[in-house]
Design a protein that fits this description.
Strand content: 5-15%
Shape: elongated
Largest sheet: 4 strands, antiparallel
Number of strands: 15
Strand order of the largest sheet: 2-3-1-4
């Protein structure tokens, strides 16, 4: 049952809603009819108005988001009776050319709504305020019905003011909901921040400044030119209290804080301080404060800083700041306020004169065009995403030797020898991850401006996404998980992420730190902590759920940024999205997961004490699909037995060649393969072509390694003798390779007379397959939200999604590979493996012999069953 609100409060809510909806609808219909063009032979209808003003209407985001209400599909007509109060007020104020008195009444209605809205309904309205608000509402009704020339409507609305006894709780609740929507949409869309100067909008100004930046480059002039520019914020309000507001702002600008500050004054002061914090690198000063404006003065060190300044002043972060500012000013002047950002024409002209004075006015047109081309973004045609555009700084990274090296490292190691189409490289995968990182963050920035996601944040995450695989070695996981551990001390725990960070450091420091200088010029308000931030995104994971925040690049308020490229908490990140889509495409496998649904349903909420990327509850099935797609790729490709065998052979070849193959490192020294992880100069030259280097070499000492490579080329692979799978549960421990190997080797040695060391000819491969969280349901780590409760994170159980999802989320494959062809040894291995399976109560291998059959009578049994030997 709906809780009853205080009587006077409930009456005001219902009265404002009913009067507001009725008056605004009738005023809108009248203005549409009154504005009928002279050449038209009939009075305009709503359809006529919408059709003639369609282009202008859809330019406004508030209308664009509701466009199907105005322009319904299937040739249906718009129903003005279903339009909300927010929309009607917007159309009246923006498109209907109201008389000044009526316009002021609409604004007064909004102000009255604000006063009642802020009461909240927990306590009743004081009787004197209640009477004042009702009288204001009566005055608005009287003037508007006179404008409409409709006395009957006046009588109907006046009855609402008298009927304050029989207010239904449901009517109050509906009224609150509509007033809340009206207030929220008005605050969201009211401050259209634009910058205009000398007839140019903000985009034209930025293009002009970029051209001057290019000219400075072309003429080899200093790019760090100190310029001074002023940007103002002006407001318009009809109340004479504006002078009082100007005096308050003057106090704020001089640092004076009076005792007993009002909440509005505090809000205004905090907002101005936050604007200063946003632009702390440029150290803004108050230049002047007038009755209707406040001017900020900036000293910029480069043209790039100027462009960043314009990005900020025309972006959503300042938009939210100005909404808070407008609300505070309204409370101080008791009037409706509109804000505008502007650059004084004379100030901008002085800035341009300063730049022109520095530039040598020589010819240089060709060089200027080349430099401009260099600074422009580049477009790639990706087989998955179509046309994707990368920032110029990303292009500079791509054109380094460290990144170009990724062209020669296969994304799927040796899977292309099993699936011929899987010959793509880490190069294109990295570009795809960069694209998805930017796409996700731009959606979140647009959807939630309060997150303060800056263009610099997005660019830093894109750079990290682009560079996250710089440290991958030849044949990727073979190098990291099999080759390197053989040459490092136990517990060293070398990971390719460590090398990625070192490669990134080498990249930005090479060539007299040229790339670092480009970062400073092209990343808005660049700081050294941005480099730290990028390296933290690339590097080895840290515990972000601990008591102390482990990162320096960004504080805990932006913890969600650390989940974009590599999410070690939920496993949902853009790296995974790209490799699932790209690998499936290149392998020729169907992919039932669409990352675009996750992006569409993503939202940042505070859960477990930090901001996390959460998803709408309806996306839970899509997330299960993602983890299943990952498992399918591991089962059918990444852990394919033939691929693993070839990987083992590659590892053996690299191991045997380690002392003979070396690369030039720092200071011209020669570095062995296993030591390149400590020398990034040498590591830059280590790619998959090391196999061809071994194959083509005539160097002594490489004979054994070359023989292994030749076997790979001839497809004379090691044999997989037997394989079984093991169900993994919480109650049952996983099998470890060492214990399985010890048990099997003992059994095999008891059945044969050969003196050879089994470890030289046999390999036990224990493969772990899961949904990404070992034996746990990975979706239990994900936070969701419901429609209508977008600010409340929740967990979702498996049974709330579907009853046909798996109960087991992990399994193991246990395989035995042999590098030699020896049928007698194969029989011994098979029998020992079957015994081991029976002892551990796990499934027998496919095609296993009958239990109890001994090695001595296997041959006769095969003849009786007409089964050929393996």
């Amino acid at each position: 049952m709906t809780a009853r609100k205080p009587a006077r409060y409930g009456h005001l809510v219902v009265a404002i809603r009913q009067c507001g909806v009725t008056l605004t609808k009738e005023l809108f219909l009248k203005r549409v009819s009154d504005n009928t063009p002279e050449e038209t032979d009939h009075a305009w209808t709503v359809d006529d108005f919408l059709r003639e003003n369609k282009n202008e209407l859809l330019k406004h985001k508030q209308i664009h988001l509701k466009r199907y209400k105005f322009y319904p599909r299937n040739e249906r007509k718009p129903n003005v009776n279903k339009w909300d109060l927010s929309t009607l007020c917007f159309l009246l104020l923006k498109f209907c050319n109201l008389r000044k008195e009526i316009r002021q009444d609409i604004l007064s209605l909004q102000l009255l709504r604000n006063n009642v809205f802020h009461l909240g309904g927990t306590e009743d309205v004081p009787i004197d305020k209640y009477k004042s608000y009702i009288e204001t509402l009566k005055g608005i009704t009287d003037r508007c019905t006179k404008e409409l020339d409709n006395n009957q409507l006046k009588t109907e609305l006046e009855s609402i003011f008298e009927n304050n006894k029989n207010i239904q709780a449901e009517d109050v609740e509906d009224g609150e909901e509509e007033l809340k929507q009206w207030f929220s949409e008005e605050q969201q869309f009211r401050v259209g921040v634009t910058i205009e100067t000398d007839g140019k909008d903000v985009d034209e100004v930025k293009v002009e400044l970029l051209e001057y930046h290019c000219k400075l480059e072309q003429n080899k002039r200093p790019k760090n030119i100190e310029t001074t520019i002023s940007i103002g914020i002006s407001w318009m309000a009809g109340n004479k209290k504006s002078e009082e507001l100007a005096a308050a702002l003057q106090d704020l600008s001089s640092g004076t804080i009076s005792t007993g500050e009002s909440s509005a004054r505090i809000t205004l002061r905090v907002t101005l301080e936050r604007i200063s914090d946003d632009l702390r690198e440029m150290k803004p000063d108050f230049e002047s404060v007038g009755p209707g404006s406040i001017m900020f003065k900036f000293t910029c060190s480069s043209v790039t800083s100027l462009i960043y300044l314009l990005d900020y002043f025309s972006g959503p972060i300042l938009g939210r700041r100005l909404q808070n500012m407008a609300m505070a000013i309204e409370e101080m002047v008791d009037d409706f306020v509109t804000l505008q950002v502007y650059i004084p024409k004379n100030v901008y002209e002085e800035t341009i004169k300063t730049l022109e004075h520095v530039i040598d006015q020589g010819d240089g047109n060709w060089a200027f065009a080349q430099q401009k081309k260099k600074l422009s973004a580049k477009v790639f045609n990706d087989p998955l995403y179509g046309q994707i555009e990368l920032h110029p700084i990303c292009m500079m990274i791509i054109d380094t030797p460290q990144f170009q090296r990724l062209r020669h490292i296969k994304q799927l190691e040796t899977v292309y020898l099993v699936y011929p189409g899987a010959s793509h490289n880490r190069f294109e995968h990295s570009i795809g991850v960069c694209h998805l990182a930017g796409k996700l963050l731009r959606v979140l920035k647009e959807r939630q401006p309060e997150l303060d996601i800056t263009s610099k944040d997005i660019l830093c995450v894109e750079i990290a996404a682009l560079c996250h695989d710089l440290g991958q070695g030849p044949f990727s996981h073979v190098f990291e998980q099999k080759f390197i551990p053989a040459f490092t001390s136990p517990g060293t725990g070398w990971k390719h992420e460590m090398a990625s960070v070192k490669m990134f450091e080498l990249m930005i420091n090479e060539n007299n730190r040229q790339l670092y200088k480009d970062f400073k010029q092209m990343i808005p308000s660049f700081e050294d902590r941005d480099i730290i931030f990028i390296k933290e995104l690339i590097g080895v994971r840290r515990d972000i759920n601990g008591e102390n925040w482990p990162y320096e690049g960004r504080n805990k308020l932006k913890s969600f940024l650390y989940e974009v490229v590599a999410n070690h908490v939920t496993g949902i990140d853009v790296d995974r999205w790209d490799y699932i889509a790209r690998d499936s495409y290149m392998l020729g496998m169907e992919n039932g997961f669409d990352h675009n649904r996750c992006i569409h349903h993503a939202r940042v909420l505070t859960a477990e004490g930090r901001k996390q990327i959460c998803y709408r509850e309806k996306a839970a099935q899509d997330i299960y699909d993602m983890f299943y797609a990952r498992l399918t790729l591991y089962r059918r490709a990444y852990q394919h037995k033939t691929h693993n065998i070839i990987g083992l052979m590659v590892c053996n070849a690299l191991h045997d060649a380690n002392d003979q193959i070396s690369y030039v490192g720092e200071n011209g020294t020669r570095v062995k393969m296993s030591d390149t992880i400590y020398d990034m100069k040498a590591y830059t030259h280590l790619t998959d072509d090391v196999i061809q280097k071994i194959q083509r070499s005539s160097k002594k000492g490489l004979e054994k390694s070359k023989a292994t490579v030749e076997r790979i080329v001839r497809r004379d692979f090691y044999k997989c003798i037997c394989q079984t799978q093991v169900k993994v549960t919480e109650q049952k421990d996983k099998f470890e390779k060492a214990s399985v190997q010890e048990n099997l080797f003992n059994r095999i040695n008891q059945k044969r007379n050969d003196e050879r060391d089994l470890s030289e000819i046999l390999e036990i491969d224990v493969v772990n397959l899961d949904y990404g969280s070992k034996d746990k349901d990975p979706v239990t780590n994900v936070w969701f939200f419901k429609k209508g409760q977008e600010d409340t994170p929740i967990r979702i159980g498996k049974e709330q999604v579907s009853f046909v999802l798996p109960d087991t989320f992990a399994e193991q494959y246990v395989r035995v590979y042999c590098s030699e062809t020896d049928q007698e040894l194969f029989d011994v291995i098979e029998e020992s493996f079957e015994e081991w399976c029976k002892e551990n109560k796990i499934p027998q291998p496919k095609g296993a012999k009958l239990v109890g059959t001994t090695l001595s009578n296997r041959g006769s049994l095969k003849r009786k069953l007409n089964v050929s030997a393996p």
